[in-house]
Task: inverse folding
């Protein structure tokens, strides 16, 4: 608002200066033209009557000139006294002195003209022609004053228009700002009221789309967090159960066999107990190794991504020996980031776990291939349970989050005879 007013003020000031500059040149030209005409007329009259006694009965008749605006013409006697002169004319709206001074300051001084009058060769008086621009100044001032009044009205109308325009713009903008503040506070409130301005309505539409997306993401994150907490509890219980049922029983068995070995007297009986202890220890080591694999990704660092995935799928195949597993794993590019390797391993691990939980397949296909720019993973199984509706659980939500974090894409779809999951990760 201040900038607009400043620009308007500068425009008016420039206009005023331009009018003053143009007017002072026009005034000078018009007055000089009038003086030339007056000089020519008087000199022509004198030349035609060179010996006429001009002072008798005021023969010039200057007092009869009532409408001469630009000049003051005076008839002087031999002593310089005014014998006759025209009547000065002023407008009804005289210009202020400061305005006259401004025009005079920027104009060159107008010269006076004096024409000598002679009788029988002797000077008996003179006609003095004096420029008088005041009337023109009055007219110019009146024009400028009218222009300033129009400029003031225009200035006022522009400010009123800008005020109402800004009022119309600021109100919707304030609503949008309040909307973003609500988003910061976690309140997802849509604005369904039209602003009446196409550009702002487009911004309102984008805001509503953002609100809907953030609300959906917030719900997904909340659901994922809740289910992750549930999964953590399940994992803890499962680990505790494995430690109690498997490792605890194995340790108890070792203790019983060791005690029995101490009490028997024959070498044969002692060797039998020792063999049981050794086998139990091997089983315990395998069980511990499997638990560590599930909890840690050290195998990826030790074997590399390709061999670690082959080991993962092979171990799942052994546990599900009635399932036909077709695996095609070809990863030659080993410069994946730690996060990418972890995400790929965990996603395939989660997919195999979900197959055990949610389906009864007879055939499972795992295909992992590289192109120049993409690592593609395709997992397919035919174990869809009848009368079981598909829902997006914590496993898939977690996989989506993992793949999104490394700029990849994850798509899954269900067909009549199979469930398919496809992952694509860019290779940098």
Result:
């Amino acid at each position: 608002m201040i900038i607009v007013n400043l620009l308007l003020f500068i425009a008016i000031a420039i206009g005023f200066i331009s009018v003053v500059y143009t007017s002072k040149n026009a005034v000078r030209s018009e007055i000089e033209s009038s003086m030339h005409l007056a000089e020519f007329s008087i000199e022509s009259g004198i030349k035609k009557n060179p010996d006429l006694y001009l002072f008798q009965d005021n023969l010039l008749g200057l007092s009869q000139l009532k409408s001469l605006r630009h000049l003051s013409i005076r008839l002087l006697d031999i002593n310089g006294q005014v014998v006759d002169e025209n009547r000065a004319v002023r407008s009804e709206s005289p210009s202020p002195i400061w305005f006259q001074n401004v025009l005079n300051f920027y104009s060159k001084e107008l010269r006076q003209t004096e024409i000598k009058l002679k009788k029988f060769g002797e000077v008996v008086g003179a006609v003095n022609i004096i420029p008088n621009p005041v009337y023109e100044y009055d007219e110019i001032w009146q024009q400028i004053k009218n222009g300033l009044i129009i400029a003031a009205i225009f200035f006022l109308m522009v400010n009123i228009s800008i005020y109402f325009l800004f009022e119309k713009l600021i109100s919707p903008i304030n609503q949008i700002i309040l909307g973003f503040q609500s988003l910061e506070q976690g309140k997802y409130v849509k604005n369904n009221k039209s602003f009446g301005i196409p550009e702002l309505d487009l911004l309102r539409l984008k805001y509503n789309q953002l609100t809907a997306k953030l609300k959906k993401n917030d719900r997904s994150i909340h659901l994922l967090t809740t289910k992750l907490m549930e999964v953590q509890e399940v994992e803890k219980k499962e680990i505790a159960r494995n430690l109690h049922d498997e490792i605890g029983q194995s340790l108890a068995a070792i203790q019983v066999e060791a005690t029995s070995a101490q009490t028997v007297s024959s070498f044969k009986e002692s060797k039998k107990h020792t063999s049981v202890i050794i086998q139990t220890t091997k089983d315990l080591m395998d069980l511990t190794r499997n638990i560590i694999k599930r909890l840690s990704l050290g195998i990826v660092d030790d074997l590399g991504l390709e061999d670690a995935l082959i080991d993962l799928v092979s171990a799942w195949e052994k546990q599900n020996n009635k399932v036909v597993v077709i695996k095609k794993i070809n990863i030659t590019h080993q410069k994946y980031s730690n996060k990418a390797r972890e995400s790929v391993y965990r996603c395939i691990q989660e997919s195999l776990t979900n197959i055990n939980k949610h389906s009864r397949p007879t055939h499972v296909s795992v295909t992992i291939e590289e192109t120049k720019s993409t690592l593609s993973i395709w997992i397919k199984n035919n174990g869809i349970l009848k009368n079981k509706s598909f829902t997006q659980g914590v496993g898939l939500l977690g996989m989506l989050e993992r793949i999104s974090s490394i700029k990849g894409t994850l798509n899954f779809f269900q067909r009549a005879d199979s469930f398919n999951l496809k992952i694509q990760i860019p290779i940098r």
